[in-house]
Amino acid sequence: MKTLFLLLLSLTHIVAVQAQETWTLKQCVEQALKNNLQIKQSAYNKESAKRSMEQSYANTLPTINGFATHTYNFGQTIDPFTNQFASQQVRSNSLGLNGQLVLFNGLQNVHSIQQNKLAYTASEFDLQKTKNDISIAVASAYLQVIFAEEQFTNVSVQAALTLQQRNRIEKLYHAGSLAKSALLDIEAQLAMEELQVVNSENQVNLSYLNLKQLIEIDPTTSIRLEKPEVYSMEAYLPPQTAAGIYEISLEKMPEIKSAEYKYYASKKRLAASRGGMSPRLTLSGNYGSGYSGLQKEITGISLSGTDTIGFTGSGDYVYQPKYTFQTQPKSFNDQLRDNINRSVGFTLTIPIFNGWATKTNIGIAKLTMQGNELALEQTKRQLQKNVQTAHADVLAAFQKYKASNKSYLAFKESFTYASSRFEQGVINAIEFNDAKNKLIKSESEWLQAKYDLLFKIKILEFYSGNPIEF
């Protein structure tokens, strides 16, 4: 008994070293949702879709741009501000604002807004789908750890019992009550069970590593999982048919909603593409001014003489005074003030031929819509298959659980009887070990069936819209 106590104490110590912090399934899922890269990528896709939606709203606003030019002319030209011919170097500047507002373009902007709104909603459901997938994976890894730990505990206890039997047989052998073959048989059994303990411990460590990698925590972090309370497995059986669960899942599953909104978005894209065939009416306006190096202003006038410009009927000369004007270049600020110009206009553009671009866009949009329609139908069919499979899996897993439980109880009772007969010397070590190996195998199968059934039940509940939790 002392040996058994020391072994169990050692086992408790090993588990306690790993179990410095207790995590629930909810905590594991939340940690995965917080750090998983797939979820972050899906969140970025959602944000990108949101920006596209916001931009489609902004496309209905007018466009306003400022402009400024600074030009030197070195050849003959007509100055745009003085309308004078110039052949010398002339500097000119233009400053201003121009704006444009689309009044009608075949409702392309309206349909684009609706398309991007639907695409953004679809991206929200895509994000939820990714979260669901990660949650299911975490739940599976979580239960795998629980199963591995129970398996490790069971084989460790069995190894401790075998060690106890080995010590007892060794004493009987030295006392001359048993042959050496009995001692060798029990030592071989002990060696095999010690190997099972090592393999089970390795499986626990690997299961923990898989879970830690999935929830994105440091693999060296010591954690312990809270074991779910498992009551009568009959209470978990689905009360509904597969068809009933499928009808519920059609309203609950985000992949269905995502496929639906992508299909609706593609219909709006087709409508927007068809809008490219309609006339386009645009309101435009300009406000600007400019400067020219040729523009002068008069600073003074002086009489410099007269010019003969004709004769009267009596033969007298007709004179015209001749003036000399003093000028200087007009200042930059004065020209900007005096040269202000404004304009408002409407432009009607009627598409006639553009290299089949509009027709091609319509064709591509139509194919996209048809593809999304097929994708929606495929998603529905796949969901139906998944629900049917999950429902059948639960029923099959329940039958396996009942059979393995019955087998385990039978082998447990058989082992108890074999232990008693072995203690009395009625059966040899080989028969005893055979009964024990059958018990270990049946117990392992029962544990595996139990957690497999629990996981499949939770998957079926998930398709009914319930969160995965224990």
Total of DSSP H or I helical runs spanning 4+ residues:
10
Pattern of helices and strands = HEHHEEEEHHEHHEEEHEHH
Structural class: alpha+beta
Mean pLDDT: 86
Largest beta sheet: strand ordering: 2-5-7-10
Helix content: 55-70%
Number of strand elements: 10
Distance between the termini: 37 Å
Low-pLDDT runs = 1-6, 15-19
Oligomeric status of the shown chains? single chain
- What Rg is obtained from the alpha carbons, in whole angstroms? 45 Å
How would you sum up this structure, described in words?
By secondary structure, the chain is of the alpha+beta class. It has a domain at 296-329. Helices cover 62% and strands 18% of the residues. The protein has ten helices and ten strands. It has helices spanning 2-18, 25-35, 37-58, 108-174, 180-214, 242-252, 254-274, 332-338, 357-423, 429-463, and strands at 22-23, 63-73, 77-78, 85-86, 90-104, 224-225, 280-292, 296-311, 317-329, 341-349. It has a four-stranded antiparallel sheet with strand order 2-5-7-10, covered by helices on one side. It has a two-stranded parallel sheet with strand order 1-6. A two-stranded antiparallel ribbon has the order 3-4. The chain is elongated. Residues 1-6 and 15-19 have low confidence and may be disordered.
Characteristics:
62% helix; 4-stranded antiparallel β-sheet; disordered N terminus; 470 residues; two-stranded parallel ribbon; single chain; alpha+beta
